[in-house]
Amino acid sequence: MLTPVTEAFAADLRARLPEACFRELTPAYLEEPRGRYRGQGGLLLAPGAAEEVAEIVRACAAARVGIVPYGGGTGLVGGQVMAEGPAPVILTLERMRAIRAVHPAENVLIAEAGAILAEVQAAAGAAGRLFPLSLASEGSARIGGVLATNAGGVNVLRYGNARDLCLGIEAVLPDGSVLHGLKRLRKDNTGYDLRHLLIGAEGTLGVITAAALRLAPIPARTGAALMAVEGPQAALELLALAQGRIGEGVSAFELMHRQGFDFLAETMPEVRLPWARAPEWCVLIDLGLGAGQDPALTLEGLFAEAAEAGLVSDGLIAQSEGQRAAFWSVRESLPLANRRIGAISSHDISVPLSAIPEFIARAGPALARIGQFRINCFGHVGDGNLHYNVFPLPGETRADHEGRRVAIKACVHDLVDALGGSVSAEHGVGRLKVDDLERYGDPAKLAAMRAIKAALDPAGIMNPGVILRAPA
Amino acid sequence: MLTPVTEAFAADLRARLPEACFRELTPAYLEEPRGRYRGQGGLLLAPGAAEEVAEIVRACAAARVGIVPYGGGTGLVGGQVMAEGPAPVILTLERMRAIRAVHPAENVLIAEAGAILAEVQAAAGAAGRLFPLSLASEGSARIGGVLATNAGGVNVLRYGNARDLCLGIEAVLPDGSVLHGLKRLRKDNTGYDLRHLLIGAEGTLGVITAAALRLAPIPARTGAALMAVEGPQAALELLALAQGRIGEGVSAFELMHRQGFDFLAETMPEVRLPWARAPEWCVLIDLGLGAGQDPALTLEGLFAEAAEAGLVSDGLIAQSEGQRAAFWSVRESLPLANRRIGAISSHDISVPLSAIPEFIARAGPALARIGQFRINCFGHVGDGNLHYNVFPLPGETRADHEGRRVAIKACVHDLVDALGGSVSAEHGVGRLKVDDLERYGDPAKLAAMRAIKAALDPAGIMNPGVILRAPA
Questions:
Q1: pLDDT tens-digit series, residues A306-335
Q2: How far is A7 from chain B (nearest CA, A)?
């Protein structure tokens, strides 16, 4: 059983930690972007070094006080707030934001957990390298949270998920020991891979304090195009065609539905829309090529062959970096537009690549049996990852459909499960999908997860209630 | 405490398993390539399905009988034999060798654990795809063992280690439950990544029975070159130059020392050597390019720029696939030539890329303080992974140096450790490096590994004594 933070506990920590570790708990630390959960108060601590994190964790373990690790606060599944249970320590990594080292010749960068993703990208860029992880919240998300949730984003197709971009971690384990695993090695087969266990564990098995990150060369030439496709099947065939012609040069391949453009027009008129009249479906293709290649010509060649094959009906090829940025601004503004409309239910799902058309074809009619909705389906189709979000009709609000939310979610997730997919592709489980994991998760996997959690965190102090239900 | 296999235990299993599961235990199952360990007898079982594996594991868990999972028997650290302790079950996956499915449009192949690596490569090839994992023992190694040891090989530079090529696994856990994790997804953030935990666990946390493997497009054009370089630093600079010019098209980048060619001439005269007089150091560069590119021209351009920069003094560019195969035959024959000479001590190490020259510069003089040896240093320099093997002088045998083996190993491994490297880059820990892991491993990592092992395998039946010392 956990106990709440007390005055005595806080006083004891004040005697052991520098003054700088104590910050005022402002409301921002208790909110999350989708407004589903409201964190309770507690003790906010901002350690400045791994050893200070360890000191805090040891104190919490001894007193059985829960710890909520806090990165940039951008997570979408409520993993950064603790709404129930005894008041916890909220442990923000914001003071640990140093880029400890950059090794351009090795394509490695060492960042502390509190470094903001955009800062890591900038530090890599200043060294003539690319840190390829890129997502809508990169201006706020911190690298520790990005790793703890194994974030995805738009460049997974070419460069992999967050876990694929991490060579080693430093972390504080639930017993307060420091895992010194910041190796800059491409190969290291010395025992169980704790890095991959902590990545994606959402702070429930320890606190990542720093990471050795993998960099890539900056592509000499970049380009982008929007191409109108008849539907998801044509999008997949276009992807295969693009990869066949351009190989690893295809950095991103994003599907968008017209609904997203309509939402942008309605809620974010400042975003300039590329199409006069948006097609029902389109893809945003991004290329990163070598010095000898011309992205616009490459995309023109792709479009010509795709048009010949009947896969595309219209296309816009960026003629400048500004135009490419404008295409991306459209894509990256979709989540905020969605938030302004107010989804009844949002789904971050993945299915095997070839099952995408079937998923989209079946999900709409299945939902229509529950009620009438607007659906914005978009996402990283090259990774089999869709954001399938369900909205009220114009004039209605999400509150009008509150009673249907459970049925909508079950409808979408049951279909995903039937197609061999995942009910959380890139956002994680957090608090939001604990039930889903119990419902759809493999029983042997769940049992093993519980055994690992109990072994490494017997008091259950690390991010209680996230991923696994906290013991009653 | 474990108990030995008994007649009664075997009789009980005979009543529960099909006759085909019982095979004669021939001496081959008790040997390993380097002859360091001799396995004891036991009960050989060859299950034909995951459920039969589960039945065996449950019986062993109930009776506390140890299990040694057996793939192709090609491991180099003794993980496939149990020399001491109560007689175990030797569990060979050789009957589970089906390619269950190939999904070329998704770049996925599902293989059972007993499928031989070369068979997986061939099945991918028949579907117009590449399974890029490639290593000297690919004609015997089985995919389950390849994953259990997180094998590396020559294409890691471009395509990653075994773990990077695995999307999902089916496995039997130490309690006999079946982990159904054969998802064909690029993104799946639903809880702890047990796939990455079992990959590299060398059979100590369960038995992998099948895997969803990631395929790649077959490069349209391939090419290879041997280039003489002045030394390791020049090799690294040549690598940077090659990647800058050719990007992901560089599939492999292997360093070889003249000593290896001398060993080939001495022990394998049937291997045709490419150089009339081998340079002290050379690299084998392998390219996989798109349809529009010419590998030989690309390599000529690279050579010209490298020569201009003073990095290369001589070069051989393959003019045909046959010549490329001949270059690779030289590289792939090195391990067997080494075995025929007979190493006193072999080291599979990695260091940060930029530390390779320092490692090589310091290791030789450090060893010279112990005695006079021949050193064959070769390997995957693009991954920071060297095979640094120490041999007796001509006319001596390894037996003459038996007393120096411990000092040699400590000398090499201490230097690796000082440079932030790994004492097992791609071969794993097995039985051979249990001591090294205790000596060089991070204490927090070791404690967490022991906690995980105890939680998932409380009776300690899975590959006892591998990676972690078996409890006394």
A1: 999 999 999 999 999 999 999 999 999 999
A2: 31
Do A452 and B447 count as a contact with CB atoms less than 8 A apart?
A: no
Domain-embedded: residue B405:
yes
CA A158 – CA A168 distance, rounded (Å): 20
Contact with chain B for residue A244, Cβ under 8 A: yes
Chain A residue with the nearest C-alpha to that of B291: A245
Inside any domain, residue A319: yes
Task: State whether B187 and A383 contact (CB < 8 Å).
Answer: yes
Neighbours of B408 (CB within 10 A): 20
**Nearest-CA distance from B111 to chain A in Å?**
17
Domain's final residue, options A167, A196, A217: A217
Do B264 and B296 reside in the same domain of the chain?
yes
Q: Do B184 and A352 touch (CB under 8 A)?
A: yes
List the CATH number of the domain containing A353.
3.30.70.2740
Same domain, A231 and A330: yes
Q: How far is B388 from chain A (nearest CA, A)?
A: 15
For chain B, the domain total comes to 4
* Residue A79 to chain B, least CA–CA distance (Å): 12
Q: Are B30 and B85 contained in the same domain?
A: yes
CATH number at residue B194: 3.30.465.10
Instruction: Identify whether residues A278 and A318 lie together within a single domain.
Output: yes
Question: With an 8 Å Cβ cutoff, are A248 and B244 in contact?
Answer: no
Kindly tell me the burial class for residue B372, based on how many C-beta atoms sit within 10 Å of its own C-beta (0-12, 13-18, 19 or more). Answer: exposed
Q: Are residues B334 and B240 in the same domain?
A: yes
Q: Are residues B118 and B225 in the same domain?
A: no
Find residue A223's DSSP bridge partners.
A287
User: Could you report the per-residue pLDDT of B25-58, keeping only the tens digit for each?
Assistant: 999 999 999 899 999 989 999 999 999 999 999 9
- ipTM confidence score: 0.96
Residues of chain A numbered 256-285 and touching chain B (CB < 8 Å): none
pLDDT for the residue numbered A465: 97
Number of A:B CB contacts under 8 A? 255
Please answer yes or no on whether B197 and A199 come within 8 Å at the CB atom: no
A100 contact B CB<8A: no
Chain B environment of A183 (Cβ under 8 Å): 352, 420-422
In a domain, A412, yes or no: yes
Last residue of a domain, one of B217, B241, B256: B217
Q: Which residue of A has its CA nearest to B153?
A: A187
CATH number, domain of A322, equals 3.30.70.2190
pLDDT tens for the 472 residues of chain A, in order? 899 999 999 999 999 999 999 999 999 999 999 899 999 989 999 999 999 999 999 999 999 999 999 999 999 999 999 999 999 999 999 999 999 999 999 999 999 999 999 999 999 999 999 999 999 999 999 999 999 999 999 999 999 999 999 999 999 999 999 999 999 999 999 999 999 999 999 999 999 999 999 999 999 899 999 999 999 999 999 999 999 888 889 999 999 999 999 999 999 999 999 999 999 999 999 999 987 789 999 999 999 999 999 999 999 999 999 999 999 999 999 999 999 999 999 999 999 999 999 999 999 999 999 999 999 999 999 999 999 999 999 999 999 999 999 999 999 999 999 999 999 999 999 999 999 999 999 999 999 999 999 999 999 999 999 999 987 7
Determine the structural domain holding residue A182 and report its residue range.
99-217
**Would the CB atoms of B444 and A248 count as touching at under 8 Å?**
no
Are A140 and A228 in the same domain? no
Q: Do A388 and A402 sit in the same domain of this protein?
A: yes
- Within a domain: residue B201? yes
Q: Smallest CA–CA separation between A178 and chain B, in Å?
A: 6
